[in-house]
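It is worth pausing here to work through a concrete case rather than discussing structure prediction in the abstract. The textbook approach is simple: state the sequence, then state the predicted structure, then interpret. We follow exactly that order.
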Amino acid sequence: MANNKQDIKFLSSPNIGKTTKKYCRFKKAGIRYVDYKDPEFLKKFVNEQGKLLPRRITGNSLKFQRKVSVAVKKARILALMPFVTDQYK
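Step two, the predicted structure:
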């Protein structure tokens, strides 16, 4: 049998299933206000078609995900961001 950890051989990587902890970038950076006038920052939260990315993908907290969605909607109304597009990024 295997006496130490170096003798153990794995068929698959032992790191499978271990994911890194998601964090809210707003809380980490201390941002309190999401500016709707900055479309370059808001691009990080929409996909190529212009749809909002869900919270489970971005890692935002519920409070800031709501603020991001409101900011993106305001930017769309003011024509700073498109509603729908083929290749946005």
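Step three, interpretation. Residues 6 and 61 are 41 Å apart (CA to CA). Residues 22-77 form a domain with the 30s Ribosomal Protein S18 fold (CATH 4.10.640.10).
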